[in-house]
Design brief:
By secondary structure, the protein is mainly α. The chain is built from five helices and no strands. The protein starts with 7 loop residues before the first helix and ends in a 26-residue tail after the last helix.
């Protein structure tokens, strides 16, 4: 990872841009006077570009580790639930597997219907002995 920039305002600028702020907003928030041209000039300097890229790569790595570690933990829970057996253990295993699937984008919580209105008829049934 590229070392922090020696100038505090330039470092803060790089951090803000890496977080997703616009170059102009980051320039002002870092303590510089508002100047769009200077903001873009600073953003295109090699050391600043390298620092922004390094900060973004570090953030991406942390995100990947977080999703991977959560999925790994959920899989361990599912395995322990299956090993325990019985309804409670299997219920825990199923919940953990569903959470892992949702986390990894394998399931959607929302069902979308298309094609017009849907008619539902409710029928009440009674049973006699």
């Amino acid at each position: 990872m590229a070392d922090p920039l020696h100038n505090g305002r330039r470092e803060r600028f790089a951090q803000l841009v890496a977080e997703g702020r616009s170059v102009t907003d980051a320039y002002c928030e870092a303590g510089f006077r508002e100047n769009r041209q200077n903001a873009h000039r600073l953003a295109n300097e090699a050391d600043v570009r390298a620092r922004i890229a390094a900060l973004q790569q570090a953030a991406a790595a942390r995100t990947e580790i977080t999703v991977a570690s959560i999925t790994e933990g959920l899989m361990r829970i599912a395995q322990k639930g299956e090993a325990e057996g019985g309804a409670p253990g299997l219920s825990v295993a199923r919940a953990a597997l569903m959470d892992a699937a949702k986390l990894n984008g394998m399931l959607k919580d929302k069902l979308e219907l298309s094609g017009g209105p849907v008619h539902v008829e409710i029928v009440k049934c009674t049973f006699e002995d």
